[in-house]
Every structure is written in structure tokens, then in C-alpha cells.
Amino acid sequence: xxxxxxxxxxxxxxxxxxxxxxxxxxxxxxxxxxxxxxxxxxxxxxxxxxxxxxxxxxxxxxxxxxxxxxxxxxxxxxxxxxxxxxxxxxxxxxxxxxxxxxxxxxxxxxxxxxxxxxxxxxxxxxxxxxxxxxxxxxxxxxxxxxxxxxxxxxxxxxxxxxxxxxxxxxxxxxxxxxxxxxxxxxxxxxxxxxxxxxxxxxxxxxxxxxxxxxxxxxxxxxxxxxxxxxxxxxxxxxxxxxxxxxxxxxxxxxxxxxxxxxxxxxxxxxxxxxxxxxxxxxxxxxxxxxxxxxxxxxxxxxxxxxxxxxxxxxxxxxxxxxxxxxxxxxxxxxxxxxxxxxxxxxxxxxxxxxxxxxxxxxxxxxxxxxxxxxxxxxxxxxxxxxxxxxxxxxxxxxxxxxxxxxxxxxxxxxxxxxxxxxxxxxxxxxxxxxxxxxxxxxxxxxxxxxxxxxxxxxxxxxxxxxxxxxxxxxxxxxxxxxxxxxxxxxxxxxxxxxxxxxxxxxxxxxxxxxxxxxxxxxxxxxxxxxxxxxxxxxxxxxxxxxxxxxxxxxxxxxxxxxxxxxxxxxxxxxxxxxxxxxxxxxxxxxxxxxxxxxxxxxxxxxxxxxxxxxxxxxxxxxxxxxxxxxxxxxxxxxxxxxxxxxxxxxxxxxxxxxxxxxxxxxxxxxxxxxxxxxxxxxxxxxxxxxxxxxxxxxxxxxxxxxxxxxxxxxxxxxxxxxxxxxxxxxxxxxxxxxxxxxxxxxxxxxxxxxxxxxxxxxxxxxxxxxxxxxxxxxxxxxxxxxxxxxxxxxxxxxxxxxxxxxxxxxxxxxxxxxxxxxxxxxxxxxxxxxxxxxxxxxxxxxxxxxxxxxxxxxxxxxx
Length: 863
Prior knowledge:
24% helix, Leucine-rich repeat, LRR (right-handed beta-alpha superhelix), 24-stranded mixed beta sheet, disordered N terminus, Rossmann fold
């Protein structure tokens, strides 16, 4: 039952988070009122009627209240004696947790309208009640006398003649002393439907429930005898109560499961709806087993809820649960030791079951109570003629279908359509979640947190589940198709796992692609470093997104489509800023959905580079939870204070402005210097660059098979020399140079006007000719020095000499007399310094010697 209450509270909490600010709570208007020396708090509850709260004021006496007071709360004071009369029209009196020792005389005289009287936790001796004590309480509906027994070993008598005067009483909460009896006088209480003897809220010490213990309370509908140290219950003790609907015998650990046949005896003759038998075994011991005969008396009842929690149950005999009728809506087996077995098939035969709780299995027994408890389970006396276990193969095939899907089987579970909730948290479930089907159109809530489902492969075929909790399952992998059929899912809790890597790899947004109804998503504590842009592309109904306690350093997930988002929890991550796109997206959501974001626990960057973000977040600080507590990173910790963000922003802007001109000037200067250096380098090395570009292109073409003549690395050359000359010197080349060097000496020369291919791009033949030649001979004249193309030929030949031939003597200059040596030195000084030149003679007598030396020079190998 505790798990059921917990789950319902969780659901209510989630719905509250989704509707923050939508509910307005009406607060009662209290005012101070005085009754003699007592100062109390009062509020009007109807016309001329007042409720007086005088609790927890250390008052030692009850004052005289005004006649218009109809409700009195005098609990938690120091009253010993009721000395004054109460107002005649009072309907509620609470005197609990005082020090009242006796109810002498008639303290409730003429209180004909009193409906509720609470005397819990005083020192009243019930044995001393006088016969006329309650004679005027004609309208009393509820009486609470619990916690008044000071010594449970001292005999206490419940006088039935005293209570017989309470003809309107419906609820009686009283201690259960040893040898308690409810005499014939209780038969006059025909409206009494609730009897609470629980030792949890009071004192209960009787050990046996006899067959006739409640025989005079035929109208009882609610009976609570939990935690009463009961060791035995006679058969038919509850079967004699035809109107009994709710029976609680929990936490009587001496009973054992062997007492179940007596507890349930003849319950089919009652109106039983709820049976609580939790904790009726010792805290420690070996596992127990629920057998068929334990529950066979439930056959024929209309029971709707049964609680068998905390009984160390490890197994159930197959078929035992089938003694419960199809009226069952809640079955709770939480906090036991359940191991899996064929009895699980019995769950699926309940046609109207709504909640199945098998959560919190194998929880350790409480320490040190389990060690020092004096307890021994009542055990079954089994005869040798036990029924044979029936064959469950047919039942298994009815409720679980196995289909061969590729190489893996597809398990389909056929669950009752009425089943709405399954609690299986802390149930020792250990495995991957494979592809499986759940045929249950009524299933709405699944709680599987705190188990060991370490990989979620799926998909799970069910479109009806609305709440799924898989938190704290040590999962490190979620497949992209796991939630493929989760179209009806509204609340999804995947926190406290390790699926951050799987999420970051989902760049197409497949994981949540089909969760179109999702409103609450918890991805906290999942070691998430980044979320892909399209992860939430189809979750248009999302209201709350929780990703706190991760390692996100940059928010990249798109939120434009989250038109209904109200809360995004990003606390305790590594965020320092939002980029412009994210700012625009959030700003749009601020206007249409009143979004609030929690960035607490992140270290924001508070510097000039992040000024735009700081300005933006300050403008929208009303949308950021705990804005005043935000902190800057360690390097910026003194520069910005979010508790006074506006003034800190102005200070930061002024400081950043003073540096702006420095940054601009430095940037311009740096750009100019860099450009100048690059320009100088380019000018000084332009020929080298052009040469290297040509070589690179040549290698690429060679790899593609386009060039067959790349011979720079070979020792054989097609030409002995390439002649570089100005077009004005063509006549000299034809009439002088060719006859002397080719005809007479037999050298093979490259003459561009003769040997250059027709239609070739200008420049490329020159480079190829240079590479095919043993030497380059340049005829340096005035016209040569003025020609750009001759300048090109000379410098490319020079680069060939430096980069490839590794010898400047590859290039040889013929300096004509008309050339000024100073001009030549300025252009090709390095060649002059290395004596890579010959002066053309000015006298005819020296021509023959000149051509002879030039021929020898060309023939000489430079390698």
C-alpha cells in the first residue's frame, strides 16, 4: 500500500510541475482571539460560527469559550482536568496530547451537537469511565481514545455499558489491551462501521483473536488490528461480520503465512473488498512460499485489493493466486524476496486487475531489530499427500506468445486489459530489454526504476503506456528504435543512467522521434556531454525538460519546436554561455510559453567577449530560476555579480569600451604588418613561388599520365642548351650563334622561334625547355633587360638552377658591350658573383676564341 501511495503522490507531483502557477490556493483568514487568559487563533467557518485553534500554547486549563465557537483545537497543551464546560453548539473538540488523567463528573454535558471527540495520547484510565460519561453525546460520530494506556501489562477493561450510550457512533479508535473484550453493550451501536485497534497509532497488546471477539459488532465494515502482537486467530473470527469490507491484520509477525487459512475462513460470507496481511512473518529468515491452501478461502469473495507485502515471500505455488476472483483490482507483493517462476502466469489471468506491485524485492531487514527480535514464524503442518503441481504449459502458451523474428524471438505478453499500473522498482531485474510486445490496452503506468536493465534494445510494442520510469538502471545504451512505439507516452524518467553517448550519437533525432505526446522528460545524471540539434524535433507537447547534473558545455539542441515548454532544468552542467541562435530561440519561447530556465550551478563566462550574452540574460532574468545565485567562472569571479546584475553590466560595458579602441588599433596594426610582411615575402619570392606551382602541376599531370617528358631528375637531356634572347637578337641567333654552335660544334640547341610547339600556352614551353636542357644561355642586351618575357625566362632558369640542379652555373650569361654592368648587377647579382657569365668581345679578332670557349662550356656537364 505504501508503494501505491508513493506512486500516486509521484504522479500528482508531476502533474503539478506541468501546471506551475495555474492553481491558486485559497488561504483561510485567521485572526487573534482571546478566551480568558488563552490567546488563540480563530477563523470564521460559517455565519456566526468560529473555529478556535489553541494548540501548542502550553496552557494548563481550558478556558470558557464564547457560545459561537463550534470547533476547538486544544491539542498539545498541559491540561490535566477538564474544569469548564464547552459551548453547547460545539461540533468538534480535540484534546489530544495533553495530560488528562480522568474524566470525572460529566465534562461533556449537554454537548448534543458534538460530532468528533479526540482524546488521543493522554493518561486517561478507560477502566474508570462512569456510565453516564457519554450520555449527552447524541450526535457523536467519531471517538478517539488511542494512546491512553500507560502500562499495557496492567489490566484495562472496556465497559460496554459506557459505550452503549453512543448510539450515533460510526468510528471508534481505541487501544487494544490484553484480554480485550467487546461486550453485549456494543450491539446497541448499530451505526458503528469502523473499529481501529492498531498498535501503530496506539497501544495494542492482545495475543489472540477469538471467534466471538467481534460478535456484537455486526455492522463493522472497517477493522484494523494491525501491530497487536497477535500470535493466533481462531477460524471464523472475521467470517461472522457480514458487512466487513476492509480488514487489516498486518504487522503481527508471529502469525506467519500458516495463519492465512484462519484469517480468510468464511470471508466469502462477508462483503470483503480489501485484505491487508503485510508483515505477518518475522523480519529475518529463509524465504517463504504462498501455497494454494493459504488463499483457497478467498474463492467466492468479491475482494478487490490484497496486500501481501514484507512477508519474505520467495515463491508462490502455481495456481495459488487463481483462488482470487476476477474482482481483484490491486495486488501488492512488494518488499519480499520474489524469484521468477511459473506463478507469474497467474498475474495475467486477472481480468480486472488495475495495479500490480512487485517492487522493492530483497530489501535488507531493518537493523538492528531483525537481529534482536524474539520471533518465530507459524509454519504449515503439511501432510504427505500434497497435490501435484498442474502442468502450466498450456497456460504459458495462452498468455505468452513467442514469435521467431529474424534470429531473435519476439516475446508478446498478453496482459489483462484492466491492468493500469505495474510497480516493479527495486525488483532485482537484470538483463537487456529486448524487442518484446505488451498486449495491454489498459496499461498506463510502468515503474521499473532501481533495477539492472543495462541496455535498452527494444523496441517495446505498446502505444498505450503514459508513464514510464526506468531511472537508476545502470544503463549505458539506448537504441534509436527503443521508443519507436511510444506514441502515447507522456511522462518519461530516464535519469541516473549513463546514456549520454547514445544520445549524442543520435544526430537524426530517432530516439524520441515517435514520442509525440511526451510532456515530461527527465535525462538528468546521464553523463551527457552534448545533445544533437534534432534530438527533440518531434516532441512538440513537451512541458518540462530536466537535464541537470550532466556535463553539457554547449547547448546545441534545437528548441524552436517546443511551443509548450515551461521548464528547462540545466543546473549543474558546464555551460558558460548561449550562442546567438540559442538566445533567439529561447527569447521566442519566453513570449509564447513563459519558459523558465535553471542555470544554477554552471560557471558562466563574465568577460568582454561574452558581453552580448550577459546583456541578454540580464534583460530576461525573470525567466531564469535562482538568477541571483548564478556564478562566474574562476577567472571572472570578481567582474560580475548576478545579485546586482544591472550595475555589474554597466561597469563591465565601461571597462570593455576602454579596451575597444586598443583592440581596434592593435588589430589594424597587426593586419597591416602581416599584410606588409606577406607582400614583401611574395615579391621577393615570386619567382620561386611560380616555379614551385609549375613543378607541382607537373607532378600532378605526370601522376595522371599526361606528361611523358619530365626529365629534371635524369642525367640525359634533349637539348645541350636553351638559348634565351630578345626578339631583337633573332638575327644574331640565326647568323652567328646557330652556325658556330650547331653547325660547327654539333650542339643541339633550343631556339624558341624554331622549336616552340605551335598553339601551346605561353610560358609552359619555356619551363619545359629549361628542364630538357643541359644549360641555359642568356643573351643579355638592353632589349633583353627591358623585356618581361626575357625576365621570366631568366628567373625561371635561375630557380631551376637553385631548386633542382643545385648549381648556379646551370645558367650562363653572355653580356654584350652595350649593357651597363651596374644594371646587370642589380638584376642578377648572384649570377655575377658566382662568375656565371662571359663578355661578348667587342673586336672581331676575338670572336673565334669566344665561340670555341662557349662550345666547350656548353658541352661540360654541370652535374
